[in-house]
Amino acid sequence: MNAASTTYDARRQELEQYFDRTAVDAWAKLTSDAPVSRIRRTVRAGRDRMRATLLSYLPGDLTGQRVLDAGCGTGSLAVEAAQRGAHVVAIDISDTLVQLAKERTAGQYGKGSVDFRVSDMLEPSLGRFDWIVAMDSLIHYEPADMADMVARLYARTGRGFVFTFAPKTALLTVMHAVGKTFPRADRAPNIVPIAEGDLVARVTAHPEMGPCRVARSERIDASFYLSQTMELVRP
Fold first, then answer.
1. In whole angstroms, what is the distance from residue 139 CA to residue 166 CA?
2. pLDDT by residue (tens digit) across 91-100?
3. Which pLDDT belongs to residue 24?
4. What pairs with residue 89 in β-bridges?
5. CATH code of the domain containing 114
6. If we measure between CA atoms, which residue out of 137, 88, 79, 131 comes closest to residue 109?
């Protein structure tokens, strides 16, 4: 990690505590079909659309390909990739979420496989992958850390890296202000918006970033869920 490692490590610890202790029940409900508040229904709908969008960027047939689900949560994306034939390594820093993912998804992997692990997505021993997908798992880090994470993950792909970021918009700024007034159970961890141009400039200037091409990008706006994709592929 670069000089931003101190902030990265501190934020990672905060997120681990949040998902393992503070919001276990709320996150389990959000990622299921259990009844939730109106606010969380919009977040659930947005996340469902985003997951489908990211999966649409991957080949329909992933037979034999190695995929990293970086920040797998309760495992829905990992399972769908496995059902296309991928061998998925599904990583999350939250032991609670990984255990829940294992329980929910057992026996649903089709012709592929899923190896759930509690670990840092940047762990070098994970090796190389054909594809890496990171859905809403980089959005909590400061721009310098996020760019470093993107560059280091992309360097380990053979075909491409698909991830999301929080677009810096006036609407998102207002949503953050409003969100602070929500009941604690309806609050998500703080995210760090970044302008698309700023993100691209930071990533392409990173010393570990190899040749890449920004392919597709799409913004998902579902009321209290706002996120944007970015697809980096080999030129």
1. 6
2. 999 999 999 9
3. 79
4. 68, 115
5. 3.40.50.150
6. 79
